[in-house]
Specification:
EC number: 1.14.16.1
Family: Belongs to the biopterin-dependent aromatic amino acid hydroxylase family.
Pfam families: Biopterin_H
Strand content: 5-15%
Bound molecules: fe (ii) ion
Largest sheet: 5 strands, mixed
Distance between the termini: 15 Å
Protein name: Phenylalanine-4-hydroxylase
Number of helices: 13
Radius of gyration: 18 Å
Helix content: 40-55%
Catalytic activity: (6R)-L-erythro-5,6,7,8-tetrahydrobiopterin + L-phenylalanine + O2 = (4aS,6R)-4a-hydroxy-L-erythro-5,6,7,8-tetrahydrobiopterin + L-tyrosine
CATH topology: Phenylalanine Hydroxylase
Structural class: alpha/beta
CATH superfamily: Aromatic amino acid hydroxylase
CATH architecture: Orthogonal Bundle
Number of strands: 7
Length: about 300
């Protein structure tokens, strides 16, 4: 199956074989080693995505992109991104070879270092990602790190991740990240907009999440989201909508431990479930995933 959904698979450690020299798994981006073909792939992805995002990406994403040294012609140099990010929100971008173990990932985020894959997908894989590459990580994530609310939220997620590991509640916390930082929508004055990096960097899902009649779009509720499974292999069946990015800041001030407890006691929810208590922006007809099931059944 093809998908350009870029899963935050930091939960799947690459294993000792891939362990780099540095304990924090960082490597040099090796910017000078990118080939003309690598830059050309970036350009293809960048140009088709920037055409799609007006009217779909939230204002903060557009502004962040505008203020960063991210353009069509070459893969951005992480050092130059950090020079702009650091004075703005205290974040920097560090290169990693791909997936890193959870504790390493959380420690980076807790210290305002965003680990970005330094490799780029191949030209025949434009819409397929096994693991997040430089296009997903830089185009999708870095513009949002220019926003102070997201910047604080992702740092708190890193700190919370280290705690959740000890409490055994990582899956509940990972769902919060998934349905916000990766696949979140928000209410803007002129309609729903995307801010999640998994969709902002995806040619097909950035259209699907807002234009398709298939998925549910439901008001974000922290405990409800902690109970909700997600799809890692296809478009989401449900997108959760926050009021604005400042709502994420409220979550940085909450003790998640009691929420983990009640979320663990309550039944787990499937990705397409809609509850009577949900505040529904649009109830999906499920047509896309229904057709996929039919397709695979025959
Ligand atoms: Fe991501």
């Amino acid at each position: 199956m093809l998908t350009d959904t870029a899963a935050p698979k930091h939960g799947l450690a690459a294993g000792d074989a891939g362990r780099p020299e540095n304990a924090d798994w960082t490597i040099s981006q090796g910017w000078e080693h990118y080939t003309p073909a690598d830059h050309a792939t970036w350009k293809t992805l960048y140009e088709r995505q920037t055409k799609l995002l007006p009217g779909r990406a939230c204002d903060e994403f557009v502004q962040g992109m505008r203020d960063l040294p991210i353009g069509a012609d070459e893969i951005p140099d992480f050092r130059h991104l950090s020079e702009v990010l650091m004075p703005r929100t205290g974040w920097q971008v560090v290169a990693v070879p791909g997936l890193v173990p959870d504790d390493v990932f959380f420690d980076h985020l807790a210290n305002r270092r965003f680990p970005a894959g330094n490799f780029i997908r191949k030209p025949h894989e434009l819409d397929y990602l096994e693991e997040p590459d430089v296009f997903h990580d830089v185009f999708g994530h870095v513009p949002m790190l220019m926003n102070p609310a997201i910047a604080d939220f992702i740092q708190a997620y890193g700190q919370g991740g280290l705690r959740a590991q000890k409490l055994g509640n990582l899956s509940q916390l990972a769902r919060v990240y998934w349905y916000t930082v990766e696949f979140g929508l928000l209410q803007q004055g002129d309609g729903l907009r995307l801010y999640g990096s998994g969709i902002a960097s995806s040619y097909t899902e950035s259209q699907f999440c807002l234009d398709s009649p298939s998925p549910n779009r439901i008001r974000f509720d922290l405990e409800r989201v902690m109970r909700t499974n997600y799809r890692i292999d296809d478009f989401q069946e449900t997108y959760f909508v926050i009021r604005d990015l400042d709502e994420l800041l409220e979550f940085t001030r909450i003790d998640f431990a009691p929420l983990y407890e009640s979320a663990t006691r309550a039944p787990e929810l499937q990705p397409g479930d809609v509850l009577p208590t949900d505040q529904v922006f649009s109830r999906g007809d499920g047509s896309y995933h229904h057709a996929r099931k039919q397709g695979t059944a025959t």
